[in-house]
Amino acid sequence: MSDKPRILFQLDPDKHASSFDAVVAIDSGVQHLVPYSSVSEDDVQNLVYGGIFTRGPSDLKSTAIFIGGTNVEAGERLAEKVASTFFGPMRISVMIDPNGANTTASAAVVAAGRHAKLQDATATVLAGTGPVGQRVCRLLAAAGASVRVGSRSEERAVRVCDQIHSVVEGASIHPFTPTGDAQLQAVLNETDLLFAAGTTGVQLAPNSAWADSTSLKVAIDLNAVPPLGIEGIEVMDAGADRSGKTCYGAIGVGGTKMKIHKAAIARLFEQNDLFLDAAEIYEIGCGLE
To answer: Which of 21, 54, 128, 210 could be cross-linked to 68 through a Cys-Cys bond (beta carbons 3.0 to 4.6 Å apart)?
Structure first.
């Protein structure tokens, strides 16, 4: 076992490296945090080389990389560059969670799984083409749920479905473009699990569209800023009964998200070849239940 101190390189494409991610890293037991901001793909190789060539192979598990920032696409490009820089045994573990998309989506699906069987469930994900929504859809599809990807743009919804089909064999996933409250209500009358992953200040589901659904078991809203995405859910709800459904608000899911985030950071230092993306982070979350 390596007795080297745990070092985490925080790679952030934003002007300032996230203070939130820094605090969580330190609270997760990181002994030395090395934050880098305004990181571009051109910067990655030298930063990675600095991490893998300064310790012997047996000590590499004591060094890891966290990729964050607010721009999910930029973070994913950095992650791809990091992965392509490793070779042979010369690698260190990596966690990717730009804008908290992976940990938030994992926490939402873990929360739903506490109250309903995911396999063969019917799920509707409103704003399913955004960063968090896409990951919720992918995790649900991988768990065996039949998923409707809700979006105002049919083109974006179809594209997300195609992407998920390419990575989740046999995925049951379908685009859904609601044209009004009546159509949404009809869909939610045949839905077991409802997720709202929209941007702040946009209501996606009025109370009238979901409260009377006899099939709906769980409703989860991931927007913390009023008006909330699902009318009638409170931001602090953490398994609250509303209209006979089990409901979660953004802060209610947040406790699970933080536990998953910290556990994933700690997991990085168990071996030197982990790459923690949405599926791996979700698996860690399931292990905490």
So the answer is: 21
